[in-house]
Amino acid sequence: MKKIKYIAIVEDDVTYRDTLKEYLDKYAAEKNREFRLTFFSTAKSFIKDYRPDYDLILMDIELPDGNGLDIVRRLRKLDSNVMVIFVTNMARYAVKGYEVEAFDFIVKPVTYFNFCVKLGRALDRLDMDTGSVFWVNAKGGKTRIRTDSLKYVEVMKHTVLYHTVDGVVETSGSMKNARELLKDEPFELCNRCYLVNFAFVEEVRRFQITVGGEELLMSHLKRDEFLKKLNLYLAGGRT
């Protein structure tokens, strides 16, 4: 069963917005997919309280209060991983779209056949991602975290900090809760405060490791087990 994909549609034209929804619903029914859609009609409403909760963004370039290219430039400072497809009648901006790491362009008027081809390619790429997704109750509401963007988990008393490539998500809980969420992923304790993603380990010294550019302490008690599982992970085995 393929994972649910979370898609944001940023489009001020109601007709095109309805067309994209219709196409996505039809595609989901035909291909046995499941999408969760969120709609935005302005650049400001999309970027104001943005959280890295989406797999794919379908972005118009001409918006009433901004340019889609400029919005995606700002977006990349908040979310370096999300896939963007521009849906626009301004085909001349295609080259500039790749400057902000757009995955593709769909030119208006959008036909269902062309939409399916582009969406299918995007989903194939997204399905190649090996990480899973989980939700936490963070400040300001629920936040979605991808395990392949999570560097490590830090626990201080009853506060849990999820250190991701896009920033830190703070919630309440315990290390036990965090380990349960990540039990099927390549994470291991380097001490009682840090649960580390092996994919982000860059260097191991005697009692210190570098994880995604950050220095963390390794305890005497956890060192042997951590290194054993790290070596197994690097060899391609199960942890």
Give the tags.
34% strand, alpha/beta, 5-stranded antiparallel β-sheet
Strand % is 25-35%
Name the shape in a single word.
elongated
Widest beta sheet: strand line-up: 2-1-3-6-7
Query: How confident is the prediction overall: mean pLDDT?
Result: 89
Q: List low-confidence stretches.
A: none
Structural class, please? alpha/beta
Distance between the termini: 24 Å
Helicity, as a percent range? 25-40%
Major sheet: size, sense and barrel closure? 5 strands, parallel
**Helix and strand run:** EHEHEEEHEHEHEEEEEHEEEEEH
Total helical segments: 7
Number of strands: 17
Radius of gyration, taken over Cα atoms and rounded to an integer in Å: 20 Å
Explained architecture:
The structure is a single chain. This protein is of the alpha/beta class. The chain contains 7 helices and 17 strands. It has helices at residues 14-31, 43-47, 68-78, 94-99, 112-127, 175-181, 220-234, and strands at residues 5-10, 35-40, 56-59, 62-63, 66-67, 83-88, 104-107, 133-138, 141-146, 150-156, 159-164, 167-172, 187-191, 194-197, 201-204, 208-211, 214-217. Strands 2-1-3-6-7 form a 5-stranded parallel β-sheet. The chain has a 5-stranded antiparallel β-sheet with strand order 12-11-10-14-13.
